[in-house]
Amino acid sequence: MLFHINAITPSHINLWVAPVDMRKVPSIRVSLDRSRHRTIEAHVDFTQLKEWGWHATGRCGFDLNGETCPDLSGARHVEIHDTDTNVLLYSRSDLLGATPRRLLALDYTIDQANGLRDDLHARFQASYFGLDAMHHDVLRCVFDVQYTNSLYLHGNVLFKRYEDLVSKNEFLRTILVVDPYVELAKRLLWLRRFAQVAEDRSQWWRVEHVLDPCLFAVELNLEDAAAMKKAFDQIEQKSFAWLANPMTRALACARPDEAFAPKHWVGAIETLSRFDVVGHQQHWDDYAAMVYDALGLDAAPPEPRPIPAGVLQLADRLRKVKSVFPLVDLDLSLNAKVLAAIGQQGR
Known about the structure:
Order of helices and strands: EEEEEHEEEEHEHEHEHHHHHHEHHH
Number of helices: 13
Oligomer: single chain
Strand order of the largest sheet: 10-11-9-12-13
Largest sheet: 5 strands, parallel
Shape: globular
């Protein structure tokens, strides 16, 4: 799916949506003040979309005004979603802040338990989370949104695939680094919980994309160091790829299935050097303060979310298993570089 907002005023919004099924006439759901909802089918032809091969007929457009969408201009909160995918296409609100920046918080962690996310959401006109669940084409449209300069994106992406749009649209780039063993522990425990979804056969489709990693995590004896060493010695490729060095993958890889090579560590360092704010979980207060300062926010940042004791205990056990090292080697080097840089800044 592709989309674009062409013209924006409080009383007039013009946009188009090119659905995955080129034969289908798209529709959108307009929500006014979070209480009035209207589904509208495309009623404007964009002939160029047909010429480009993006749609069979070009009937992909919407012209929203007082006639096609009554009360649009008077609404204090407006959201427009694609009906099929539920992707947010447009948002404006008097109930939210309008921080005049485009912010990308690259969060490669599995739980994305970043305490800033919920607070910052209310300070931007449009926010997008769960970026790794969005299709590449849709996400490129999101990065290139032009109707607002108050835009907040938080989640895990392969940065190289979107760096051109991040630079073009002058995003503020931030990242919070976490201990690689803590992240590996979180991923293993997440897989074990997620595998329970597969017990319901009707939900099997939700697990298929991580089936091998789920099976690996479920069968792993987390209490026996010798058993863990043997399991990690014999880990198969799909599980290894899903668990290994998620920070390096996010910063340096252009494809989800890209095999790691020495160039990726170098590429990750180069990418990290172009970020505006690089923080570490162990120095949360400094990181949060830098993000707020870069955004021009005069407010106290939220407290960090505590790491569960079970995660910390598993992380300590993983540190003692030598066969785990290939899963964290590149991220450990990045982690050390970041901590060293923070230490130098504090002198």
